[in-house]
Specification:
The protein is an all-alpha fold and 192 residues long. The protein contains twelve helices and no strands. The longest helix has 14 residues, at 14-27. The radius of gyration is 20 Å and the shape is elongated. The N and C termini lie far apart (56 Å). The relative contact order is 0.06.
């Protein structure tokens, strides 16, 4: 049933996949693969309440798996609950402090809650681990922007752009940072 459900899942036939995984759970309510796949299907179908419930069951089965906490956090964000998301991201981070994605997501969640000092503490860890990661650099820029630290915003966004990424949002952010530091030519350059 697990292999059948997986095939249906990969083919995009979520209804048949759900039937297979649910049948599997009737035989073994602790089947991690079935629960994980049902959580993924629920997310793809935008059924975040079910996804939350499936990840909750996975956490009950294995409370040391940072992935389940991170996924629960992402679902909480999609459900519009950044406070719950932050709690799940924090737990995921405590279980796996090397996970850059969790570090940037936790810092972003703290930013959304206007907990700037916490965001700063977390993203500094990300910078110490991988200061050439574009997502880390952009999250760092957003945190530094919250503190009106425009020289740091400029350094971070420029570094990300040197690596090869340039989005309109961050081009605007660096333009404003240049403007705030009285570097008008550089500001105009990034506005064009």
């Amino acid at each position: 049933l697990n292999r059948l459900g997986y095939c249906y899942f990969k083919l995009g036939n979520y209804l048949e996949a759900k039937y297979a995984f649910e049948d599997l759970l009737k035989k073994d309510s602790t089947n991690i693969s079935a629960l994980s796949n049902l959580a993924s299907i629920a997310e793809r179908e935008l059924n975040y309440n079910n996804a939350r419930d499936y990840y909750g069951k996975l956490i009950q089965l294995d409370s040391t798996n940072s992935y389940y906490f991170r996924q629960s956090a992402l679902v909480a964000l999609k459900r519009g609950d950044p406070l719950v998301a932050t709690a799940f991201f924090s737990k995921a981070h405590s279980l796996n402090e090397e996970d850059i994605a969790t570090i940037t997501d936790l810092a972003s969640a703290y930013l959304e809650l206007k907990a700037f000092d916490y965001a700063d503490t977390i993203i500094e860890k990300g910078m110490a681990k991988d200061s050439s990661n574009i997502k880390v650099l952009y999250t760092y820029a957003r945190v530094r922007n919250a503190f009106d630290d425009y020289p740091a915003v400029i350094r971070s966004v420029r570094r990300a752009m040197e690596i090869g990424d340039s989005t309109n949002y961050y081009a605007m952010m660096i333009s404003v940072a240049y403007l705030k530091t009285d570097q008008l030519d550089s500001s105009i350059y990034h506005l064009n």
